[in-house]
Specification:
The structure holds two protein chains of two kinds. By secondary structure, chain A is an all-beta fold. Chain A has a single domain, classed as Immunoglobulin-like (Sandwich), CATH 2.60.40. Helices cover about 0% and strands about 60% of the residues of chain A. The chains are: A mainly beta, B mainly beta.
């Protein structure tokens, strides 16, 4: 079981997001990723934008890349983000937004 | 403000990734476009000029800007015989979300004409993502007496993030996956 806590749920491109992952029963390494979710009438897809590995105490610092587009809500399509932590079969996601 | 670039100013990987989608950018037969300012988001502004390359260039002159929403369409799954290489070429659909026109003075004896557009607040920023895009196309069309209209189009790009790699567990249910410099 994973628990993900973020210092902020919104950030701008080029800034650092801090957080902490608690993985008491997990033995495999934990990875934290910033994931972009793209939705359109054809379907949805997610892409990894950036990733970070937590320290031994579970804290991490993830850099939002400089050229990351902000959240967009279009007429038929949308672009949103989430922060995801996973370790083996375990996974947890937190909603996250990138401001312009 | 969004960093704005033209398609030919991108690096090779980005240009290669953009090659499968239709990003219109070309000069006309007797004119070309140059942008002076492009703030590609809601509340932004696009300013530029149409320049004559080969005089005379008479005719009615209309400038327009449109916001196009575009998305990648996966080739539909079908019978095995339809799963050829040709059917795996990604297709892009698009719909015009916003469009505005402005009539300019004809280019009779002038070398250039300026145009400017104020974008409504509710429009999205210009984004080229992996499977979706919002882009702003700027076009100047000159009516001619015989033959097709003379058109010049430029598509300035805002955020370009087309080379993000798919995540280990990317949700792939439906998506498998010369213009002059100004």
């Amino acid at each position: 079981m994973l628990e993900l806590a973020l210092s902020q749920a919104r950030a701008t491109a080029g800034t650092v997001v801090h957080g902490c992952v608690h993985a008491p029963d997990v033995t495999v390494p934990v990875v934290v990723e910033l994931v972009r979710l793209e939705r359109s009438p054809a379907g949805s897809a997610s892409y990894r934008v950036a990733s970070a590995e937590p320290a031994d105490d579970g804290t991490f610092a993830l850099v939002v890349p400089e050229d990351t587009p902000p959240d967009v809500e279009g007429r038929d399509c949308s672009l949103h983000y989430s922060l995801r932590a996973f370790a083996g079969p375990h996974e947890v996601r937190e909603a996250f937004s990138v401001a312009p | 403000m969004i960093r704005t670039s033209l398609p030919e100013q991108l690096d090779l990987a980005e240009r290669a990734a953009l090659s499968e989608r239709f990003v219109a950018s070309f000069s006309g037969r007797r004119m070309h476009l140059e942008l002076a300012h492009a703030d590609l988001c809601g509340g932004g502004r696009i300013e530029g000029r149409v320049h004559v390359d080969r005089a005379p260039a008479p005719g009615r002159l209309v400038a327009s800007v449109r916001c196009v929403e575009s998305w990648r369409v996966t080739p539909r799954p079908g019978r095995w015989i339809l799963q050829s290489r040709g059917n795996q070429i990604p297709l892009w659909r698009h719909s015009v979300w916003f469009e505005e026109h402005a009539e300019l003075e004809p280019l009779d004896g002038a070398h250039w004409r300026a145009f400017a557009f104020a974008l409504p607040d509710w429009l999205p920023p210009a984004v080229e993502a992996r499977s979706i895009a919002w882009r702003y196309e700027v076009e100047v069309r000159r009516s001619v007496r015989l033959g097709p209209d003379d058109r010049a189009v430029v598509t300035p790009l805002g955020y370009v993030d087309v080379t993000s790699f798919a995540g280990a567990r990317a949700d792939r249910r439906a998506i498998r996956t010369s213009t002059r410099k100004s």
